[in-house]
Amino acid sequence: MADLFSIFRKSEFLQEVGHIAKFAGRFFSEGFQPRYEFREFIRQCYWVGYKSLPLVGITAFIMGLVLTIQSRPTLVEFGAESMLPSMVAISLVREISPVITALICAGKIGSGMGAELGSMRVTEQIDAMEVSGTNPFKYLIVTRILATTLMLPVLSNLSNAISLYGGYLGVNIRGSVSWHLYWAQVFDALSYGDMVPSIIKTFFFGFAIGLIGCYKGYYSTKGTEGVGRSANSAVVVASLLVFIIDLIAVQITDLLNLT
Question: Which residue has the higher pLDDT, 249 or 31?
Fold first, then answer.
């Protein structure tokens, strides 16, 4: 009985993966063909990027400050306190800042898209768009996925800057490092091998968040209960995909000797 249940769950998982892959294929086949919904795309960039900036900025600042304060005692113990700015910069830019920003967006943007599109599905607004001759996939899905794909790298880079500023304040809580010296150590420690992979993988983070959020909402069922399930599963699946993409990116950068 347990084996049968396991087989059923595996087949259900593979079906879901196939549906998501088909959904992504439809995005690539329809997303770059006229008609282009520029106004809706700009509106989505505003909601995804600008409206998420306060949450991302506050989190990044606290993240940089706390990481610096927590790392100081260990470095002091080994007599390497002068390496604190370099260590914080590499940790934040390579991994912490992009991943935390993506998880914040998965929770805020992924759930919002799942709930919004799910509500439109169960109230038959999407069906009404199809009847009126509007392509709901291009108007609702393509614009949202493109917006998250393009805005997440912007948010991640802003998060890098804000978290490094938080690190500067953290360094000076119990020490005295000048503004010029701190940033000189930060930029000396960073290289293109740190920045480029960090930026590239955020495009994939954004695409995954937008894809899952739109997929879960677009195919929502069972009324208002289904809307809640769509929002919840969008956050869970998108967050899991962020970690999987990050793992793949780390392996690729390691194979290319960029670490």
Answer: 249
Mind listing the pLDDT tens digit for each residue in 67-126? 999 988 888 888 777 888 889 999 999 889 999 999 999 999 988 888 888 888 888 888
**Distances, alpha carbon 178 to alpha carbons 64, 88, 141, 167, 181, in Å:** 17, 16, 48, 13, 5
What's the structural domain count of the chain?
A: 1
Q: Residue 4 — pLDDT band, cuts 50, 70, 90?
A: very low
Residues in the chain: 259
Between 223 and 141, the more confident residue is 141
Structure tokens given for 31:
């997303």
The predicted pLDDT at position 9 comes to 59
pTM: 0.89
Parent domain of 125: 2-255
The residue behind tokens 């087989």 is 7
SS3 letters across 140-181? HHHHHHHHHHHHHHHHHHHHHHHHHHHHHHHHCCCCCCCHHH
Where does residue 223 fall: left (phi above 0), alpha (psi -120 to 50 degrees), or beta otherwise? left
Distance CA 56, CA 143 (A): 22
Report how far residue 113's alpha carbon sits from residue 145's, in angstroms, rounded to the nearest whole number.
10
Between CA 191 and CA 171 the distance in angstroms is 22
Q: Which of 28, 42, 52 is nearest to 138 (CA)?
A: 28
The answer to whether the beta carbons of residues 145 and 211 sit under 8 Å apart is: yes
Distances in whole angstroms, Cα of residue 148 to Cα of each of 113, 115, 144, 186, 195: 11, 16, 6, 29, 20
